[in-house]
Design goal:
Helices cover 30% and strands 24% of the residues. The protein is α+β, with helices and mostly antiparallel strands.
Length: 454
């Protein structure tokens, strides 16, 4: 039904609405969707009106069973546009460089809704519901619950094989969400930025999700970087030691490297990665390097970075005491690269941070580092490492439980991400809307604009 016919509840619709041809080719027919269902009400329309859905036109002023029009809600499909920099008129991006793996991050922002869309939708709805009062706050894009990106064609993938696409936020109640592209090589970054205008992406979105839990089988685990990195440390021994932060770094790509029964997981899922890290931490004990012998150090992942003399040197370069002061502050070099042998000692350090001895030791303990401070010098006494039995990793026992959030099939659709939506500016006759606004009075227009912005 068109908005001028009986409105319907979009929450019960399956997938994205199809293009409506009943409005004579109006470009807004495919984007505007109305909902007048009262919260908690599930009675069909025929029960309220005494007639079938399509037997008569709906008149909101004659049907007393409907809620007041100011409580009506309207939704339109998300925009799926890249955020444009108004100064350059190109896709806005931000490049971040780090010595961590991956080395480079490019951030783009995906626009799901904006003020321009809400304003245009409200203007069109005023024309369709010309005889009633609508609340602009109840008009906005429908929220999606799940989003996956199919980033590139095969040709593009060959040019940037090291790229990982990461959705940085939960989706509910966000109009703009950051999308991160992680790269290992600088040449890939240069190629991506040079061809950004030609890189087409497909979004697979869903208005609902479902969760599936399964046991990860050993053949799937053996294909991951995590498994390969652990079993190749001193292959003559059955035990490997790893720092929890190094373990988290290895699990960061875990979801990109596994499949559920041959193909259930596609793309990056930070929830799965964090869950795998937590399961490793719960399953295997943490031991201290306080009394490590040379043989145990050889069984340690990235042993050179974790040896006490190395960490002593790195920490005393990362934190310094000013002259005639007993407060510790991070150095400029540490602020630029807050990594100590791959250990994230102090996230997001700034020049304003000032710590006394006890506070600094507490920060180090949070990173599983036991140390002392004497005469303005930091001395590492021991490090907490996860002791992992390689036999457990290689056995047929499925010890990892994976919970996957998947899109609900009947609420899932596919769309292309673009740099603009022409119907956001061409679907409304500006002259006619200006006349309507003038007839309603300037005070009313100002109130409506404020509501739309809120």
């Amino acid at each position: 039904n068109t908005p001028r016919d009986t409105p319907r509840d979009t929450a019960s619709s399956s997938g994205p609405p199809q293009q409506d041809t009943a409005t004579g080719g109006d470009e807004w027919a495919g984007i505007l969707r109305g909902s007048t269902s009262q919260p908690g009400s599930r009675r069909p329309l025929s029960d309220r009106t005494g007639t079938s859905r399509n037997s008569k036109k709906y008149d909101p002023l004659m049907d007393e069973d409907y809620p007041p029009t100011q409580f009506w809600h309207f939704r339109y499909d998300p925009l799926f546009m890249w955020l444009i920099d108004p100064q350059t008129s190109h896709v806005r991006f931000e490049v971040r460089e780090s010595e961590a793996d991956p080395s480079y991050t490019i951030v783009l922002w995906l626009v799901l809704d904006n003020l321009e869309a809400r304003r245009a939708a409200y203007k069109q709805l005023k024309k369709d519901y010309y005889s009633v009062k609508l609340n602009p706050r109840n008009i906005f894009a429908r929220r999606i619950a799940h989003l996956q990106l199919r980033p590139f064609s095969e040709e593009v993938t060959k040019m940037i094989p090291d790229c990982i696409v990461q959705i940085a936020h939960t989706l509910q109640d966000y109009d703009v969400i950051p999308i991160r592209f992680l790269f290992e090589f600088k040449d890939s970054v240069k190629w991506f930025l040079k061809n950004l205008h030609a890189v087409n992406m497909t979004a697979i979105a869903s208005y609902g999700t479902r969760k599936t839990t399964f046991q990860l089988k050993q053949p799937e685990l053996s294909r991951t970087h995590l498994y390969i990195a652990l079993v190749t440390v001193d292959t003559s021994k059955k035990t490997v030691y790893i720092h929890p932060h190094h373990l988290r770094a290895l699990t960061r790509k875990f979801s990109d490297q596994i499949r559920v029964d041959g193909g259930g997981i596609t793309g990056h899922d930070s929830t799965i990665n964090e869950n795998v890290h937590r399961q490793f931490m719960d399953m295997f004990p943490i031991v201290s390097t306080y009394s490590f012998i040379s043989q145990q150090w050889r069984m340690t992942y990235k042993e050179i970075d974790l040896r006490h003399d190395t960490l002593n040197r790195v920490l005393n370069r990362a934190f310094v005491q000013r002259q005639n002061s007993k407060r510790w502050r991070p150095t400029s070099a540490f602020i630029e690269d807050p990594q100590c042998g791959g250990i994230e000692v102090l996230p997001n350090p700034t020049k304003s941070i000032s710590l006394n001895d006890e506070q600094l030791l507490a920060v180090l303990r949070n990173s599983f580092i036991s140390a002392t401070i004497e005469r303005g010098s930091i001395t590492v006494k021991g490090i907490g490492l996860v002791e992992i039995d390689k036999d457990v990793l290689s056995s047929e026992h499925n010890f990892l439980t994976i919970e996957v959030t998947q899109p609900a099939p009947d609420l899932t659709f596919q769309t292309h991400i673009t740099t603009h939506r022409s119907n956001m500016t061409t679907g409304v006759d500006d002259k006619e809307d200006d006349t309507d606004a003038e007839s309603e009075g300037s005070d009313s227009s100002e109130d409506e604009e404020e509501d739309l912005q809120q």
